[in-house]
Specification:
By secondary structure, this protein is α/β, with parallel strands linked by helices. It is built from 29 helices and 17 strands. It has 4 domains: about 200 residues, P-loop containing nucleotide triphosphate hydrolases (Rossmann fold, 3-Layer(aba) Sandwich), CATH 3.40.50.300; about 190 residues, P-loop containing nucleotide triphosphate hydrolases (Rossmann fold); about 110 residues, Arc Repressor Mutant, subunit A; about 70 residues, HRDC domain (DNA polymerase, domain 1, Orthogonal Bundle), CATH 1.10.150.80. It has a 7-stranded parallel beta sheet, with helices on both faces. Strands 8-13-12-9-11-10 form a 6-stranded parallel beta sheet, sandwiched between helices. About 5% of the residues have low confidence. The structure holds adenosine-5'-diphosphate and zinc ion (ZN).
Length: about 625
């Protein structure tokens, strides 16, 4: 950037980051922050939040306002985030507990000399006396430009990543009321939003709410029958050799699934909070750095993972709520290319999630109530027969039209009238309870309905009940579907303390009296679904890449990737930090002969052009 007149946000976007236009509300946010306003930014994962504070940080530092402090919970990722800024030619650093006394002092001196544009720090760091002292010194010198609070939903217990350290961030406003603040999050349900505003004292901040749609992500939710086989088939048919994340509920399950994928010859690793911090860091680095790696993880993994080419996120167990589901699936396809969000779920998931809420000893009754409501919303989504995206976006307060890029749109599920079946099931639960004085679990209730003469049926003489065998016409899978719905609609309760037995809730009366009808998804997997998953979809990423590049370009792309891998290794950074796949593809396609040919390629900022341009030309023009 030329010295003298301060660069405009658009200049910075182009020169530093190599992009030619802002996305969605980015420009308005940037302008507001450059002018010193407080902002609350709600944008989906992958929407482009980082630039919202990085560009104001650059502009304001050039205008003499000093450093932007970025508060982020992601200590393990700070190295890569700062590395990415260095690659773009921005002076940035992070403060963390691994640094020596000398390193910290050197950083502090740099800050006081106004030499840093961005400083990343963890929230617990902000509260230390040393940091408070440093911030005050900077403030006295007029060198405290902006506070950017990333993952701001962590301040709220209603969000899904509550971190108590975030609570102390209200101190930023109390101590430095004149320093502008920007809070950013991808979680936006009304309750969390309101809590965030109050806790961070952002009542006067301007709210910027983006559309939460991620049009390149295809949502599918299928019934869990044989999860390991289903997962393997999904990966093999749709994502062979591609990077993805598989979420499971428990550590044990994570280990099992990772082993299973490895046995099947896939590149997979396990990640959960039970592993040593050093092992976790190592695996996270490998996931970011290696091509086509699958991370099998608990939800301990993923926050802030900005790997752009994650092609799929699979849930083998149901998350706790829609916020969690959306955040986790949002880690797919940040580069805007097609990606899959795929989940299997079943009755056991419903039972497990309910139990976790009901038996929590730390949560208050009010909290449990909120969590039950959130779980119900997710169940409703899973059982939905209409466009998944419409339902998801509605949950975040947005209206939309059917998307033609989710399982329900592409392959509308058959529905059947389950009103009568639901009534049979409810009366069976009622009769059994009445006759025996105790309640029973789902398996036994279904045996009675289907007229199965099991030992337990004989023991309690349940074959004498009027409901014995009245549901023999339906398959067990259908009954499970009915039961999931009844639980989702708050008509049946799974008693978590008493061996998951079933009990009626007051809302069941409406069905028993015939006041409401129940339309359900057909449970038997439709032929269409099988057909679709037996071969890659036509929008598969590989297919797209092959179709759009000719043989020469593909060959160049291969060489560029090999070159990038070398540079990334030398710099100890993930390959995408050097250049995104999309940038390499654009270069390969253009067959550049000289530096001028590289200008204007998306992702090619001036620092990168300067540092790598000649090499890129050499790689592209070298004889194969
Ligand atoms: P978020 O933090 O909201 O999840 P990021 O800030 O990581 O998203 O941005 C997601 C991806 O989109 C990044 O790879 C980023 O470089 C890219 N990106 C952001 N803004 C733009 C833009 N205006 N033009 C092109 N690419 C962009
Ligand atoms: Zn749809």
């Amino acid at each position: 950037m030329s010295a003298g007149a301060p660069a405009s946000p658009l200049d910075i976007l182009g020169e530093v980051f190599g992009y030619n236009s802002f996305r969605g509300p980015q420009e308005a946010i940037v302008n507001h922050a450059v002018a010193g306003g407080d902002a609350l930014v709600l944008m989906p994962t992958g929407g482009g939040k980082s630039l919202c504070y990085q560009i104001p940080a650059i502009a304001r530092q050039q205008a003499g306002h000093g450093v932007t402090i970025v508060i982020s919970p992601l200590i393990a990722l700070m190295h890569d985030q700062v590395g990415a800024l260095h690659e773009a030619g921005v002076s940035a650093a992070f403060l963390n507990s691994t640094q020596t006394q000398e390193e910290s002092s050197a950083l502090e001196k740099q800050l006081l000399r106004n030499e840093l544009t961005l400083l990343y720090a963890a929230p617990e760091r902000i509260n230390t006396p040393r940091m408070k002292g440093l911030l005050s010194s900077l403030h006295e010198r007029g060198l405290l430009s902006l506070f950017a609070i990333d993952e701001a939903h962590c301040v709220s217990q209603w969000g899904h990543d509550f971190r108590p350290e975030y609570r102390s961030l209200s101190l930023l406003h109390e101590s430095f009321p004149d320093v502008p603040r920007m809070a950013l999050t991808a979680t936006a349900d009304a309750l969390t939003r309101q809590d965030m505003v109050e806790r961070l004292k952002l009542e006067d901040a301007r709210e910027f709410i983006s559309s939460f749609d991620r049009p390149n992500i295809r949502y599918s939710i299928v019934e869990k029958t044989d999860p390991t086989r289903q997962l393997l088939r999904f990966i093999e048919t749709e994502h062979a050799g591609e990077a993805g994340i598989v979420y499971c509920q428990s550590r044990k399950r994570v280990e099992e699934i990772a082993d299973m994928l490895q046995d099947a010859g896939l590149k997979a690793m396990a990640y959960h909070a039970g592993l040593d911090a050093s092992v976790r860091q190592q695996r996270q680095d490998r996931f970011l750095r290696d091509d086509g790696m699958i991370m099998v993880a608990t939800i301990a993994f993923g926050m802030g993972i900005d790997k752009p080419d994650v092609r799929f996120v699979a849930h083998l167990d149901m998350p706790k709520n829609i916020e969690g589901y959306y955040q986790e699936t949002g880690r797919a396809g940040r580069d805007g290319l097609p990606a899959n969000a795929w989940m299997v779920y079943g009755l056991q998931d419903v039972v497990n999630q309910r139990r976790m809420i009901d038996t929590s000893e730390v949560a208050s009754e009010e909290f449990k109530q909120v969590m039950r409501g959130k779980l119900d919303a997710l169940l409703t989504l899973a059982e939905d027969t209409h466009c998944r995206r419409v339902s998801l976006l509605r949950y975040f307060g947005e209206d939309s039209q059917p998307c033609m890029n989710c399982d329900n749109c592409l392959n509308p599920p058959a529905v059947w009238d389950a009103t009568d079946a639901a009534r049979k099931m409810l009366s069976c639960i009622y009769r059994v309870q009445q006759a025996s004085g105790i309640s029973f679990g789902a398996g036994h209730i279904m045996d009675i309905l289907r007229g199965k003469a099991t030992d337990k049926v004989a023991q309690y003489a349940h074959d004498k009940l009027s409901t014995f065998g009245i549901g023999a016409d339906l398959a067990e899978a259908q009954w499970r579907g009915v039961l999931r719905q009844l639980i989702a609609k708050n008509m049946v309760r799974v008693d978590s303390e008493a061996f998951s037995t079933l009990e009626l809730l007051p809302d069941a009366r409406a069905v028993l009296r015939g006041e409401v009808s129940l339309m359900l998804r057909e449970q038997a997997p439709g032929a269409g679904r099988k057909k679709r998953s037996s071969k890659p979809t036509k929008t598969s990423v590989k297919g797209m890449a092959e179709a759009s590049l000719n043989a020469g370009a593909l060959e160049r792309l291969g060489r560029l990737k090999a070159w990038r891998a070398e540079v990334a290794r030398e710099h100890n950074l993930p390959a995408f930090v050097i250049f995104h796949d999309a940038t390499l593809r654009a270069i390969a396609d253009k067959a550049p002969q000289n530096l001028a040919d590289l200008e204007g390629i998306s992702g090619m900022g001036s620092k990168k052009l300067h540092a790598y341009g000649a090499e890129v030309i050499r790689v592209c023009t070298a004889l194969a």
